[in-house]
Design a protein that fits this description.
The protein contains 4 helices and 21 strands. It is mainly beta. Among the domains are: 119 residues; 112 residues. It has a 5-stranded mixed sheet with strand order 13-16-18-20-21, with no helix packed on it. A 4-stranded antiparallel sheet has the order 1-6-3-4, with no helix packed on it. Strands 14-15-17-19 form a 4-stranded mixed sheet, with no helix packed on it.
Length: 366
């Protein structure tokens, strides 16, 4: 039977049998039965246990009601021993029984295997597995010994020379019974001297070197010079404030937008400027990730279709999944999309604390 490991302990009874009160479909997660008296979740059941072609084992790990059993996922159905791996449907009045003894033994043995070597062919079968948190490591007389902290018994002993030989293949240097990483020896590690003679960090330095603190500071002064310099790559401010900023030679991201079934979705996390060419009437505009504290805006370039004039409604706008609102316009005049074929309107939505947007439009660029 499958090893679900969905619960540390599953519950069983010496005897339990009932019947389905309704059909149990191939993917149903709720099994309706005549009675659940005495059952506790989690547990295992088998439906139609006496049928070689319909038998199905199921792990019940969710709510048990007065007349229903529930499992959280289809993965809990069709456990090993079932007549099929999927697709079984059981009619009303089918038997429901607790019988999957094998699964309970497997779960118990899995738990035992966490603390005892349960591999029957292992030379250490039956031995308690090492709890590293309850052990100490001693290095003396060219040997490394692991000692059980509870009873001070020896758990493992290894020659340092043998250990070095085994580690050498990883790329760490080994010489005269010592490990070194770019000149850093085991004696230096033991003395707490985690230093390296390299005082600079070149772009091609390997990650086996341990730079000095001076080298790290030099890198910070070179790459993160707060008095000036040139950034390369993208920088994320994480919605933090930048003050005293003078912008020069900047550009905004032009987000390519489309509509689907009359809905235009605009995510301000992608940018604050976008372009939309009409292919249908727009009946709904949904904004997401609008900052809830402060003022933000989105400028939308809308291009009318080249062959048919479509409309743009502003009375079903949502902000951050809120209710539909109508954009506020000067004098309450509303907004009518330019009907000129291939004409362009520039529409700006202005948000205060993610409230109802104020709309301003420059129209009929053609």
């Amino acid at each position: 039977m499958a090893n679900t490991r969905k619960a540390a302990e599953s519950f069983t009874r010496n005897a339990y049998e009932t019947t389905l009160s309704t059909t149990c479909g191939a993917t149903d997660l709720t099994i309706n039965v005549a009675s659940t008296t005495g059952l506790t979740s989690p547990c295992y059941i088998v439906i139609e246990p006496d049928s070689a072609t319909q038998r199905e084992y199921i792990f019940i790990d969710s709510t048990i009601g007065a007349t229903s059993l529930a499992t959280t996922t289809v993965d809990n159905r069709y456990l090993t021993g079932s007549a099929a791996g999927s697709g079984l449907s059981h009619p009303a009045n089918s038997k429901v029984r607790i019988a999957p003894v094998q699964q309970h033994f497997e779960d118990i043995w899995d738990a035992v295997g966490k603390v005892v070597d349960a591999t029957w062919s292992s030379a250490n079968a039956g031995s308690v597995k090492l709890d590293v948190a309850a052990a100490t490591v001693n290095v003396a007389a060219d040997e490394i010994a692991i000692i059980d902290a509870d009873d001070s018994s020896l758990v493992k002993k290894e020659s340092i020379a043998d250990l070095v030989t085994g580690i050498a293949s990883t790329g760490l240097a080994a010489s005269s019974g010592q490990l070194s990483v770019s000149g850093l020896t085991t004696s230096e590690i033991a003395a707490g001297s985690l230093t390296d003679s390299t005082d600079t960090i070149a772009s091609n330095d390997s990650d086996t070197q341990i730079p000095t603190s001076a080298a790290v500071l030099d890198l910070a002064d070179t790459k993160l010079n707060l008095s000036g310099g040139t950034l390369s790559g993208n920088v994320a401010f994480g919605d933090n404030e930048a003050s005293g900023v003078i912008l020069k030679d900047y550009a905004e991201t032009d987000v390519a937008l489309t509509s689907s079934s009359g809905v235009v979705a605009i995510d301000l996390a992608n940018g604050n400027t976008g372009s939309l060419t009409l292919t249908e009437n727009v009946t709904d505009i949904d904004f997401t990730n609008v900052p809830t504290d402060g003022v933000s805006s989105f400028t939308l370039k809308i291009t009318q279709d080249a062959s048919s004039a479509y409309t743009v409604a502003i009375n079903a706008i949502t902000v951050n999944a809120g209710s539909d609102v109508t954009a506020l316009t000067a004098g309450g005049a509303g907004f009518t999309m330019t009907a000129t074929l291939s004409g362009i309107d520039i529409v700006t939505f202005l948000f205060f604390d993610a409230g109802t947007p104020f709309l301003n439009a420059l129209q009929d660029f053609s």
